[in-house]
Amino acid sequence: MTSLRHDQVTALMRAAAADLIAPRFRRLQQGDAIEKAPGEWVTVVDREVEARLTPALRALVPGSRVVGEEQCAATPELLDQLDDGVVWLVDPLDGTNNFIAGREPLSSMVALLEGGETVAAWMLDPLSGVMHHAERGQGAWRDGERVHAPEGAGLRRAVVKTRFLPEDHKARVAASAGVEVLPGVNCAGAEYPAVAAGGFDAVLYWRTLAWDHAPGTLFVTEAGGHAARLDGTPYRAGDRRPGLLVARSRAVWDTAAAAWG
């Protein structure tokens, strides 16, 4: 991943945010949002951003493919091919329900996979313009400043996504003494940077959709944190098993996994 390509991806994402996302924030019209599945919404903005980014990203790496969230809604079998070749993963607008409600945070996310491994990631706040990005083996960055996750073993403040969480795991979380458990902000593209910045000690996800987690897991690990399945195995975008624990340090991860795994 060259710095030139990083700059190109950043420029593409910033242009899409400025042209398509920011102007429609709190300005959606009747019919601009539809429920594609129970509790799962999509807007015309999600589709427009994905349509804008898809050919532009493909052109950056000859022979690469683009797999977007909205493409997968129509063609789920695209997720069966994430381990093959060079793939761009696109979440055009993470936090769609927030967007519809006219609240923040929001994120536009891209990850680059090579042979199923995430090698680069971008998470852009389309309203503030803050960009978080990471490259495998090269670190994590916030608007050009290196990010280092806080060390230490304390598990005091954590986000737990309970919507899909099995009852036995919910019971273990509820039994955690001394841990403030929060529902999160409905935007993985904001939650992962918050872990790396020390805003949360850990986040427990059950559903592990590739476009939601490939960018953030690379970012947190490159910042010095730890992300893995509850059984300790590494996260891979093409692995659709549920359960993913993310923490600002390996010590915090071990503490949370022992309590909640």
UniProtKB/TrEMBL annotation:
Pfam families attached to this UniProt entry: Inositol_P
Residues binding Mg(2+) 2: L93
Family annotation (SUPFAM superfamilies): Carbohydrate phosphatase (SSF56655)
Binding positions for Mg(2+) 1 per the UniProt entry: E69, D91, D94, D212
Molecular function terms from GO: inositol monophosphate 1-phosphatase activity; metal ion binding
One example of a Gene Ontology biological process annotation: signal transduction
Keywords from the named record: Magnesium, Metal-binding
Record-linked InterPro entries: Inositol_monophosphatase-like
Gene3D superfamilies listed in its UniProt record: 3.40.190.80, Fructose-1,6-Bisphosphatase, subunit A, domain 1
Cofactor(s) of this protein: Mg(2+)
Superkingdom as given in the UniProt entry: Bacteria
Family: Belongs to the inositol monophosphatase superfamily.
Alphabetized PANTHER family for the sequence: INOSITOL MONOPHOSPHATASE (PTHR20854), INOSITOL-1-MONOPHOSPHATASE-RELATED (PTHR20854:SF4)
Name of the protein in question: Inositol monophosphatase
Organism: Piscinibacter gummiphilus
